[in-house]
Design a protein that fits this description.
The protein has 1 helix and 4 strands; from the N terminus they run H-E-E-E-E. By secondary structure, the chain is mainly beta. Strands 1-2-3-4 form a 4-stranded parallel sheet. The longest helix has 17 residues.
């Protein structure tokens, strides 16, 4: 189960890093992934935060804004501390057209900042609030 969870979260990170994103030279990455239905436990179900450690300026003085969109996460059942841990950072990235569908999420924090994603679609998502946090020091997964 942990291996499946790791694969899912790794694929999600790859998707967020490549699908529909423009690189520093404006080239469109055109990848497509199919994610299998999964269930498990994690600290954050959806965790998107600024990640600039691998950016190479290649002589540029400014950092271009990364854009990422056209992502669908569906058919998942998870227990977590935080359902939607998405930080806005318009100086570094812009998220658009993300769909969350057919999810069953049990979390201590079931809030969802819809303004963090342009055209966020939430379809058939069942959120159940739980008491307490299990992974207080966890960044992404157990």
């Amino acid at each position: 189960m942990r291996k499946k969870l790791f694969i899912f979260l790794h694929m999600l990170m790859v998707i967020l890093a490549t699908v529909g994103c423009r690189n520093a030279f404006g080239a469109e990455a055109g990848y497509s992934y199919e994610v299998i239905p999964l269930e498990g436990k994690t600290a954050n179900f959806l965790n998107i935060n600024p990640w600039t450690q691998f950016f190479d300026l290649k002589g540029r003085k400014d950092m271009p804004v990364s854009r990422c969109g056209n992502i669908t996460v569906r058919n998942c059942r998870f227990e977590c501390d935080t359902y939607f841990n998405v930080k806005t950072d318009e100086a570094h990235y812009h998220l658009h057209d993300i769909t969350l569908a057919n999810l069953e999420i049990t979390a201590a924090d079931i809030s969802c900042n819809r303004s963090a994603v342009e055209n966020l679609t939430v379809q058939d998502v069942k959120l159940t609030k739980k008491d307490g946090i299990e992974y207080p020091d966890s960044v992404t997964t157990i």
